[in-house]
Amino acid sequence: MSSTHTPPQTMGQQYGRRSWAEPWKIKMVEPIHMVSREERARAIEAAGYNTFLLRSEDVYIDLLTDSGTSAMSDRQWAGMMLGDEAYAGSRNFYRLEEAVQTYYGYRYVVPTHQGRGAEHLISQAVIRPGHFIPGNMYFTTTRLHQELAGGTFVDVIVDEAHDPTDLHPFKGNIDLDKLTALIERVGAAQIPYVSLAGTVNMAGGQPVSMANVRAVRELCDRHGIRIYLDATRLVENAFFIQEREEGYADKSIAAILKEFCSFTDGAWMSAKKDNLVNIGGWLAVNDEEVFDLARNMVVIYEGLHTYGGMAGRDMEALAIGIEESVNDDHVASRVGQVRYLGDLLTEWGIPIVQPVGGHAIFLDAKRFYPHMPQDHFPAQTLAAELYLDSGVRSMERGIASAGRDPQTGENRYPALELTRLTIPRRVYTQAHMDVVAESVKAVFDGRATTRGLDMVYEPKYLRFFQARFARR
Ligand code: P61
After folding, report:
1. Beta bridge partners of 112
2. DSSP run (H or E) holding 349
3. Ligand 1 centroid vs 150 CA: distance in angstroms?
4. The overall pTM is greater than 0.70
5. Catalytic residue at 140?
6. Is 230 a catalytic residue?
7. 142 CB-near residues (< 8 Å, 6+ apart)
8. How many angstroms separate the CA atoms of 187 and 182, rounded?
């Protein structure tokens, strides 16, 4: 890996033209269906106005998530044929282990079936009842695993992250004063690790700067606190560092990724995002004792420590996916496509989280529906309206996702009430983005008469996945 590097330029950039294109061509297609307005109305009502409960057959353009929805490359599909389905010691595991060590730089690797499997292992391995876990904004599954292990999550992200209009280039940064205040209040011994995510999903896919992770490392070193990273979308984070942080323009995504990881003690990964596979995950750490614990626990919850819930062929596709994911051209076009949609919506005056992040456009439902109280689920309503308008499926990221405080049982009222249009990697074209943009515009134009929802069924854990709603 060379230390300096000139990111490749598209034909458009080489000649100063406006055009750009994806760095791939399509070899296989999957038909998608247009559904009529009557069918959509029936489907969303049957789904209790929850887009997680729609059948994908009833969806036209699926922007529910970028998780497990990537198109694999021809090389990955070829790799699927090289699966070594041995129960123990599959050669594909060693390929995966080597890929994680090479590109992320950690010493020990434990495979898991997906991200939350790895969150479970790290949380159970190092959190004890009464512990506090500071982090740069919560993520639903991450926080729940920390709570189930007896910990309390404390948000220490910079204030700018909670303001969808603030243009700070690194809204995922940790606020060092907030972290210091927590250390002084509860004592370093009560903090097993800092939970650092790059990029920050719930904040709108916002990045963390290299300067910030370096400073967090220095602070944690002074207090003997570890840093564990949610590396799920760290490749996209590396792109923003390359683009925005001084001294990184001529460094490759791969070099930036590895440097970032070098400031942390380990990471958990939902490989279903950056790593370009439909299923998979891993936990990687430098500490032998933590590794030993996690490797022992993985056999209880996931599978033997050389497959962790994945088939051999899945691990092969993942090893190849890791390598492909750090390709500069790929990352630039991936974030570029998200930005293309964001720029259209911005031009049309539609309120979205700014700056546009790495994996999704987040519509600001509070400003979309200023007449709607948060208890009427504006972001959930907006997701239902978008589906109704065009069969585009999005996801609520607001009060339903935030859930209840485990101590008081009261609803949490997050500052951000967002509807996420999440772009799968290498799947949709610019024409699909145009359809989405026009649909958002149509829903925006009809916003004044839109009424909210009531929650009529509420599961105990991660309620947003299975909750049901009715029109008010
Ligand atoms: C997503 F509505 N994300 O964004 P797993 N860390 C991070 C994630 O984004 C993540 C996981 C850990 C999903 C799927 C999903 O509330 C939800 O492989 C930053 O999904 O187990 C997953 O990784 C967990 C959607 C998860 C949700 C939780 O769409």
Report:
1. 281
2. none
3. 21
4. yes
5. yes
6. yes
7. 119, 135, 153, 195, 197, 230
8. 8
